[in-house]
Amino acid sequence: MLDKKGFDLWADEYDKAVGISEEDNTYPFAGYKKILGSIYEIILKKPNAVVLDIGFGTATLTTKLYENGCIIYGQDFSSRMIELASAKMPDAHLYQGDFSQGLVEPLKQNSYDFIVATYSIHHLTDSQKIAFLKELLDHLKEGGKILIGDVAFENRDELEKCRERSGDEWDDDENYCVADELKSEFPNLCFEKVTFCSGILMIMTEDFGSGGENMQYEFTSSDKEKFSLHDCRSTSVELINGRLIFKIPDGIFNIDYSKDWPNTGAAEVEFTIDPMRGVYLNVFVDSDGQTIRKEYSLEELVEKINSSEWELEFAYRYDGYEEVLYKCWIWVDHAPWSYEAELWIGTKENTVFRWDSLKDMKKTRRNTK
């Protein structure tokens, strides 16, 4: 493992060394560009995000975030790395410090939308990782996320396979993340494998999606072919443990009922959010004869609907790979009264529909599974 002097000496050659390993798809930097690109996309979904980068190195990732309006804080072991990064980001708040000892004092005075560690946290022992990650969680804003891009594995077997494949190149001094083992300490942890030796770990605040209790409905189904939300309007939303639930008091359309539309009683529709992909809403607003796209975060969507500022009416659904897109309308209580919108939901799970039957439809209802 490199000490401070070693990191300083390596600083000028760091980007070159990463590039060689990444292009050859070899341990340890296979997938490096994809990891940084994925983390970059996640962060930029929140405008002007406040980002803390742990072990930022030559600031390959944070420079791009900085150039796109993010407020950057950082801590690194190497004075030379800080010198190189400061030249790229003159207004960033960068501090020198050994993060095996925790955050430096100035960084403890703030909270962050995202805390990022790319190819840095493997310098900590397993016990140090757990203690440090718990410290970082205390400095996240509500709905904030820790994003770790590194040599990382779903389980110990995958790590051992990589060790065998890498032979003499394997670095026994490093302590790589194993997602299954960290989940015992961080139940909200999610892992996305990128290559045979790399992946992204996300840890969310414990209040992500905390909320009320589900209503009890008569029927439940995940067969999306039997349902339509066309012209169905949501007037409230719940976010519970990463599940986004739209409440639709006037009901939804079920082909097993009558042809009336919507033809159920009160209903709800649940989506399990893939944290790596998230949720965002594009609203199209006319301004001086031009249509402008405004992007809203998940938190803003929930707040606007639950405050009765908006009602969301679904129109058409399009299913992609691990994602759902709804064309929809946003209804407001002032001119122009409605806006066209697109709701994009990253999800690996089936959509769940829950509903009550209407008493006057009991006779027309066919068997629904």
Helix percentage: 10-25%
Q: What is the CATH fold-level name of the largest domain?
A: Rossmann fold
Shape: globular
Low-confidence stretches: 1-14, 210-214, 359-369
Number of helical stretches of at least 4 residues: 10
β-strand number = 22
CATH class of the largest domain reads Alpha Beta
Structural class assignment: alpha+beta
Using the 3D structure, state the CATH architecture of the largest domain: 3-Layer(aba) Sandwich
Strand order of the largest sheet: 3-2-1-4-5-9-8
Superfamily (CATH H level) name of the largest domain:
Vaccinia Virus protein VP39
**What proportion of the residues form beta strands (DSSP E)?**
25-35%
What's the domain count?
2
**Overall pLDDT level:** 87
The whole-angstrom Rg is: 24 Å
Terminal-residue CA separation: 58 Å
